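Schema walk-through. Below, the input block comes first and the output block second. Nothing else is stored per chain. Lengths vary across the set, and this one has 225 residues.
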Amino acid sequence: TLHLDEPTPHVDWSSGNVTPLTGDEIWPHTGHPRRAAVSSFGISGTNAHVILEAAPETPAEEHPEQGESPGLPVLLSAKNEPALRQQASQLATFISAHPDVDIAEIARTLATSRTHHPHRAGIVSQEREELLAGLEALGQGLPHTSVVEGVAPAEPGKTVFVFPGQGSQWAGMGVELLDSSPVFAQSLRECADALSAYVDWDLFDVLHERDGAPGLERVDVVQPA
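--- output ---
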């Protein structure tokens, strides 16, 4: 309850388990689902009451060990090149000063919560030291194997997806990404499930070349795969 100076004296607050909540408070676990009732009484006469229940706890995701993933893309952008280089230097200084910072969280925030300006750069790295080296090189305008730079067009064109179809496949295609990226694996599983109603083989079995799975030399396999 906002702006509550003193609880009403017309309620005996000592006789039960109800206490006016006037600020942030730790919500302890008691072994039961945590539920909250939220009331809103509008001056127009509209009353609303919502009961919320805490989401079930989910196990922590297992992240691939170093070397199993191609790395995280850390994206930077600015309105001009000097500002881009300054951003890179500032981020390198911040990461150096905070050794416990979560690099994955930095990558997620930069990719999803920041405006993407025309002058852009990406640093793809597996380790913190490699990221720092890329940022420092970017800040100084020097080339680095983990850094990619570019300028987005003023009027972006339409996105085009090209599916090569048959003839460019190879044994084990996509397996490395499948084993290292849970997001890719989940999307591929959705595709495999969608295909299962129309084929007598499993997409995962085909890609992993498991015993009994048909090979990519079959047209009816390679086309949908």
